[in-house]
Amino acid sequence: MKVKKINLFIIIFALITNIMGGHLQNKLKKLNNIECFSYIADEISKGSLNNQGYLNEFNSLRLVIDSKNSDKLPDNFRKSSDSIGILQNKDLNLKGLDTLNESGSAQFSENGMYLLKKSIDDKFNIYIVDLREESHGFINGIAVSWKNAENKANKGLTKEQVIFDENEKLNSISIGNPITIYNNNEHLIIPEKVQNEKQLVESSNMSYIRIPVTDNERPTDDKVDYFVDFIKNLKPNSWLHFHCKRGLGRTTTFMVIYDIVKNSKNVSLEDIMKRQILLGGQNLIVEENNKFNYKNYSQERWNFLKNFYNYSRENNDNFKTSWSSWIKSKEYEKTA
User: Fold this and answer.
1) What single DSSP character describes residue 179?
2) Which domain of life, per UniProt (predicted)?
């Protein structure tokens, strides 16, 4: 009888945590069997432990600070020209890195943007490539965004829908009326100036490009096509600065994509990835059958980069053949 009770508990525990996710699982792990049942029963009686209710809480948006408006460069800032440490690695192919003219970082504040611009040679026309799908902007120069538990609030929206949602949220902020920031323990913020990123960037005489990508995931094919079309017509004096929220996954992905487009004929994918890691990017390499994949998104992203590298290597028409048409042809060949 005792065994049956334990098995029943395990089944209930597995079902509930599968529906509700790791947030509830972490709570229940700290309790014994009786305490777990008591907690679950109490939550059910309150009506708070149901799939829809939990998901509503899980997906609820909170306005958060991404970067305070301090006089410092944004987190994880790096430039392709900062290759002093990399040059010591004699086994690494560095061809094309010194002329790649790219940089990356986490989300910058207004002051952080000015410092970022100063760190790049003024002979370049700078393009800020905003990879964030989530709605974000600036209040008094402070970088803020609307975030849910997985930072995927705008997943599935088109670029136009993302921008519309973002502007709606920013326009709802009233100048002079105190506003609560979820992760700001110091004080309320009284908005004096509210801007979207395009307004801020262009006010500093830089160009702004928006390519919304879901956090922790690979870019969709249409976004890849858009980016390739954009970069194939860039002038030699162009500099691309990529950023997402933390300057890691999405930023590294696009810094690698750009490196691939420019250098895949002469540099292996492994060396492109290694030099991006040494610059300060995230290691996106995922070994086959790696169990530590973020819901398989990491594996999908790495598989995409391997395929994109092959696409770039095969390209001989200045990328007139789009990525999406190329990958579809490869998928057709597999099924033919």
Assistant:
1) B
2) Bacteria
CB 106 within 8 A of CB 246: yes
Q: Residue 112 and residue 295: Cα distance in Å, rounded?
A: 33
- What does DSSP assign to residue 131? E
The mean pLDDT value for 302-307 works out to: 97
- Model pLDDT, residue 262: 97
Quick one: pLDDT band at residue 42, thresholds 50, 70, 90? low
Q: Which CATH number fits domain 71-133+196-335: 3.10.150.10, 3.20.20.30, 1.10.8.60, 3.90.190.10?
A: 3.90.190.10
Q: If pLDDT is split at 50, 70 and 90, which confidence band does 182 have?
A: confident
CB 5 within 8 Å of CB 32: no
d(CA 17, CA 24) in angstroms, rounded, equals 6
Q: What is the pLDDT of residue 206?
A: 98
- Strands 136-139 and 194-195, by their bridges, are antiparallel
Give the separation between CA 14 and CA 25, rounded to whole angstroms. Answer: 9
Spatial separation of the C-alpha atoms in residues 154 and 158, rounded to whole Å: 9
**Burial class of residue 137 (count of CB atoms within 10 Å of its CB; 0-12, 13-18, 19+):** buried
**Which parts of the chain are beta strand (E)?**
62-67, 78-79, 102-105, 125-132, 136-139, 142-147, 194-195, 207-213, 238-243
Question: What local confidence, expressed as pLDDT, does residue 26 receive?
Answer: 46
Chain mean position to CA 68? 19
CA gap 259, 262 in Å, rounded? 5
Looking at the DSSP bridge assignments, the partners of residue 144 are 65, 137
Domain boundary assignment for the chain: 2-51, 71-133+196-335
Contact 183, 65 (CB under 8 A): yes
Residue spans of alpha helices (H) in 63-178: 110-118, 159-171
Tokens of 314: 């095969």
Say how far residue 184 (Cα) sits from the centre of its chain: 22
The gap from C-alpha 146 to its chain's centroid, in whole angstroms, comes to: 14
Q: Give pTM, 2 decimals.
A: 0.81
